[in-house]
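Shall we go through a protein fold together, starting from nothing but its sequence? Please make up or recall a protein chain and show it to me in full. Go ahead whenever you are ready, and we will take it from there.
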Amino acid sequence: MSVNLDDVRIFAAVARAGGFREAGRAGAMRASTASEAVRRLESEIGTRLLNRSTRSVAPTEAGARLLERLGPALAEIESALDAVESARDRPAGTLRLNVPTVAARFLLPRIVPPFLAAHPDVRLEVTADDGLIDIVAAGCDAGVRYGHTIEKDMIAVALGPAVQRLALVASPTYLEARGRPRHPSALIEHACLRVRFATGAVIPWSFARDGETVTIDPPAALVVSLGGIDLALQTAIAGGGLLYTYEEWAEPHLESGALEPVLQRWWARLPGPSLYYTSRRHMPAALRAFLDFVARKRTPRPPLEGRGARSSRE
């Protein structure tokens, strides 16, 4: 049997108030609306619940038994709804995020610890996944992607620098042995360490400078998935070839001198990372708190220009 819970609630209000008009005034509804709700409920369960006269309304025996059992149930429902309403103003519950590996490693560590400290009732679940998944189908509240990969029907909020770069790097020993390329087209003569998308396609290398754009598919001495970027970095440090990757991955090794920037003025610029979600309506309190926290904490990150042991000759 399926009944309308609003009809059940209205029946209880009428029975307690002793009349449709009285219940209507208490619940800000018309007496005719209350009468129709009770009539609908009686029809649905096939039992008369109220005896009606021109002067009074009183529960039948069946109505009295139902009213007695409804009391605790309706109180529990009201308590549950009050808890949800309270949570709207006091963030609590689980927030599920799907993020790429690079964001999990370099972006979220600056955000997650202070966010959890500020909101101890929130439980954060983060899945690091380099595939372009459907966050709704995956049961996530929000995700992190780079601007050009976010669907147009999503709402996106900047989570880091508006622009990021890809860094072409190699070890000093490799560059001394193989020479420093002066133009992206020269990379076809070099050993290159490539990265593969989750779809299986190997990511092409694109460069831009002064209005000129060059996209090449250089020979690969090594191909790794996005999750294997550490292997590619260590291979580059060991002199195994040139690597083109997010500058965050390369930055510590550029600062230490283990890697050098190559063709730095050609490095491609990409839209920075954004937190994206489906709708602003009825947003979970934990997600709203995370968005507000990100808005307060977000600071621009300086570019890598000029960092590293030395810039390549271009």
